[in-house]
Amino acid sequence: MIDLYYWPTPNGWKISIALEEMELPYRTVPVNIGRGEQFEPGFLAISPNNRMPAIVDHEPEGGGEPIPVFESGAILLYLAEKTGRFLPRDLRGRVEVTEWLMWQIGGLGPMLGQNHHFRVYAADNLQYAVDRYTNETGRLYGVLDKRLKGREYICGDYSIADMACWPWIVPHERQGQKLADFPNVNRWYETMKTRPGVQRGFDVLKEVRGAKMDEKAKSILFGQTAVTAPRDVS
Ligand SMILES: N[C@@H](CCC(=O)N[C@@H](CS)C(=O)NCC(=O)O)C(=O)O
User: Fold this and answer.
1) Less Cβ crowding at N or C end of the chain, within 10 Å?
2) 75 and 99: one domain?
3) Would 201 be classed as within a structural domain?
4) Residue 53 Cα, ligand 1 centroid: separation in angstroms?
């Protein structure tokens, strides 16, 4: 059994989708990040960066103590290794999937996260920041569009790179992007949506998906410093 520490956001969906696609048994442990549950000591012991997703695998290969894993890219690699699925075994295929996984982790996720921040959450309208991240989002969509030309999935066959990228394309409207401008991304996005594993993963905790962020949640999420926010779950 795997414990999935999770909240329904793009980074969370990557792992709920992977667990569903890999048909691994798991139980969901909600981490309400708008209420500060990511600062609970028990969670920090698993995920010291106070971010979800994280997992604990109670049945690791070879037995022994449960294995905790934080960082969605590390979790995807761990699960792909565990199951032998969605990560090619041959050197060249493996390098390609790793490249596009790292592209998501190092570029698509952080840039689109800043896009959401300045377009949707920032108290002031900071036009420079809005333009900067909207343009960079468009550039990254363009890169993905070129990559998907002539390929059904990002690396040809379906892989953990698709599971990492797709959740970040879900909120394309709030990122100021039109999928019609990126026909290959659009086609891939729709193909992904038809996969039962993607649908099941996307629906985990769907009852709280897209809940409006109140001021308290904003101060917990956007007020973090080196000292960082105290636990506040009231
Ligand atoms: N690099 C991390 C990013 C995870 C991340 O940013 N998670 C957000 C939600 S999408 C979170 O837990 N935020 C809590 C916080 O900011 O305190 C990963 O890929 O796992």
Assistant:
1) C
2) no
3) no
4) 7
Q: Is the beta carbon of 71 within 6 A of some atom in ligand 1?
A: yes
* Average pLDDT over the chain, rounded to an integer: 96
CA-to-CA distance for 54 and 58, rounded, in angstroms?
13
Residue 30: domain span: 2-85+211-222
| Residues of the chain below pLDDT 70 | 229-234
Each residue's pLDDT tens digit, 141-191: 999 999 999 999 999 999 999 999 999 999 999 999 999 999 999 999 999
Looking at ligand 1, which atom is closest to the CA of residue 220?
17
CA dist list (Å): 101 to 14, 82, 208: 11, 17, 27
CB contact at 8 A, 80 and 24: no
Task: State whether 7 and 74 are in the same domain.
Answer: yes
Give yes or no for a contact between 34 and 220, defined as CB atoms under 8 angstroms apart.
Answer: yes
Total domains in the chain come to 2
The closest of 195, 167, 180, 181 to 139, measured between CA atoms, is: 181
| CATH number of the domain that residue 18 is part of | 3.40.30.10
Atom of ligand 1 nearest to the CA of 53: 20
Residue 40's region, left for phi above 0, alpha for psi from -120 to 50, else beta, is beta
